[in-house]
Amino acid sequence: MTGTSGLLGLNLALENARNHKVFGVDRLPIKTDVFTVFQADLLQPGVLERLFEQTRPDWVIHCAALADLEACEANPSLAQQLNAELPGEIAALVSRRGARLVHISTDAVFDGQRGNYTEEDTPNPLSTYARTKLDAERAVVQANPEAVIARVNMFGWSASGKRSLAEFFVYNLQAGKPVKGFTDVYFCPLMVNDLAYILVEMLEKDLHGLYHVFSSECISKYDFGMRIAIQFNLDSGLIAPASVNQSGLQATRAPLLTMDTTKLSGALGRSLPRIAPAIERFYELYKQGYPQKIRGYLIH
Q: Which of 4, 80, 146, 156 could in theory staple to 24 by disulfide, Cβ–Cβ 3.0 to 4.6 A?
């Protein structure tokens, strides 16, 4: 799997190393004996082919991306290279080598004007990040029609401590810092540890094509922050309800990213996880020292 220092990549590797032989690839150094790590820049010529020769994978889960929306606006050419062109190259290589691919995409491909989006709805990306991720979906389908494209939104503990909205609320509220919670932006985030198992289950069930892989319920970012504050016994009064239009962010955010997961729940034979138990698990991992443990994997 690629992007192993990221929120999804690292949790995906750690959760599935119990039952599978996992190779993780990242440009940053990672120190662990839980899975095998290859430090590599996937944009360098010949690197993809060399990694395939060394690992000979049955499955590839491509998580690596330039996921910082503001960074994508500041450097659109790099965003295009990392988010759109690289996935197409990986998809073609995986197809040639007879492996299976899961490509990670995003709910941000939609403009958020209507909500309750299904896989059949037409995307309309609003930011550089979203446009490049949609370009990737199209490149992957063209190069490897058998691939799984998983649109996701997630939260959890990351090695940097800065990769998820849940971490943002926890660490700022613990420091007594006031923050804004958007009352007009809705999303359906999955706990990354749940997502890690679901993606592998999709491969085990030999699924193909486009799937919405989200929580079965949706919530505003303000209400999400309030739930985090209550779960962690932090001062919810520090969270000010605000409109995303007051944020000063450069990248346009889609407001209503409520997603329909009927297709995937039908394929799996069950509903996707809900938010409340996911936040409880997020808190339980915190009490077990998981944030400190996961930070220790990244060599600074």
A: 4
**Any residues with CB less than 8 A from the CB of 49 and at least 6 apart, and which?**
93
Q: What is the pLDDT of residue 249?
A: 77
Q: How far apart, in whole angstroms, are the C-alpha atoms of residue 71 and residue 129?
A: 9
pLDDT in tens, 39-79: 999 999 999 999 999 999 999 999 999 999 999 999 999 99
Q: Taking the C-alpha atoms of 207, 210, 214 and 216 in order, what is their torsion angle to the nearest 10 degrees?
A: -80
Nearest Cα residue to 8 out of 153, 214, 166 = 153
- The strand pairing partners of 30, in sequence order, are 298
Q: What is the architecture, at CATH level 2, of domain 7-295?
A: 3-Layer(aba) Sandwich (3.40)
d(CA 143, CA 101): 11
Burial 20-36 (b: 16+ CB within 10 A, else e): eebbbbbeeebebeebe
Strand partners, 101: 60
How many CB atoms sit inside 10 A of residue 284's CB?
11
Report d(CA 172, CA 180) in Å as an integer: 11
* CA atoms of 228 and 156, how far apart (whole Å): 12
Is the pTM above the cut of 0.90? yes
Q: What residues in the chain have per-residue pLDDT under 50?
A: none
Q: Helices (DSSP H) in the chain: which residue ranges?
A: 7-16, 47-55, 69-74, 76-80, 86-97, 128-143, 165-174, 192-204, 221-231, 262-268, 275-287, 290-295
Please state, as a whole number, how many other Cβ atoms lie within 10 Å of the Cβ of residue 215: 25
Residue 124's contacts (CB-CB under 8 Å, 6 or more residues apart) are 109, 110, 111, 113
pLDDT score, position 300? 67
